[in-house]
């Protein structure tokens, strides 16, 4: 999509200096980011592209949230305001925001000690309790599908089975055929059997919800040494069941390549989260059950490959598909790790 309109942006952010370089950083699945060096420093320039969250009002609300969280001492990187006090710049119909550049690196659960796992749970709990303080009361427009259409805690099984059949047909017909297609067929047939066996375990919807980050995973958390330096990418900020975000985050941070969860790290993480938020074992058990069911109904990586012809998520499929199977087999042990 080319280089962003740096000149036009910096004319509005006069305090940021003159441009020296603008280099793309590792591209996310939904938006674009650039490391912008100027005569006065280094910045992160974000181009908002995801249609669901790229309107000016939605971005501005995210910005207000991070400004308030920053004032409470949480590790976030609020955007910089331009000369008129605006944090969102619209050029040629696209929304941009300028943030301070945060030095740091991403760390997944394999790099976290027991203490680091505990700090991660505390941090997410602090985010949830702080959002409850700083965000306006929520309305229906603030609620979002927690899985963005890939799966759902109350997924309709006939619809899921239809999706499986469609994806099976696409995987079988894909050419040139490769090992990914063979694995996709195997996992889809396997998932169809598991869903038939566990259909009576479909959970009811969550009874309560609150403001959450919406996309809390290793690529949205920067560390400086052992300590979190910045939680980034607040595009999915919205109202959802809070404990479910804690479970989803654990299922991303602490999943091993073979699809198993490092339960010895999930346990201190979950204890710290419960301590920070006041969530009890019953709430966590129900959240873990809903996220497990969601995973059984989740085919987003295959939808991207076969329906959208987008292979950027292919690398995630082996692990996430194995996780659903392992979690089903080790259901009691996983539930105990979140509640014990």
* Domain count: 2
> Please, how many helices?
11
Q: Which term fits the overall shape?
A: globular
Biggest sheet layout: 5 strands, antiparallel
Q: Report the order of strands and helices.
A: HEEEHEEHHHEEEEHHHHHH
CATH topology name of the largest domain: Aminoglycoside 3'-phosphotransferase, Chain: A, domain 2
Strand arrangement, major sheet: 1-2-3-5-4
Structural class: alpha+beta
- Compute the gyration radius: what is it? 21 Å
Task: Name the CATH class of the largest domain.
Answer: Alpha Beta
Q: Strand portion, in percent?
A: 5-15%
Report the mean per-residue pLDDT as an integer: 93
| Residues in helix, % | 40-55%
| Superfamily (CATH H level) name of the largest domain | Aminoglycoside phosphotransferase (APH), C-terminal lobe
Low-confidence stretches: 146-151
- What is the architecture of the largest domain at the second tier of CATH? Alpha-Beta Complex
How many distinct beta strands?
9
N-to-C CA distance: 49 Å
Keywords:
single chain, 340 residues, alpha+beta, Phosphorylase Kinase, domain 1, Aminoglycoside 3'-phosphotransferase, Chain: A, domain 2, 5-stranded antiparallel β-sheet, 11 helices, 45% helix, 14% strand, globular
Characterization of this structure:
The structure is a single chain. This protein has 340 residues and is of the alpha+beta class. The protein has two domains: 6-100, Phosphorylase Kinase, domain 1; 109-151 and 199-339, Alpha-Beta Complex (Aminoglycoside 3'-phosphotransferase, Chain: A, domain 2). The protein is built from eleven helices and nine strands. Strand 2 and strand 3 form a beta hairpin. Mean pLDDT is 93; it is low at 146-151.
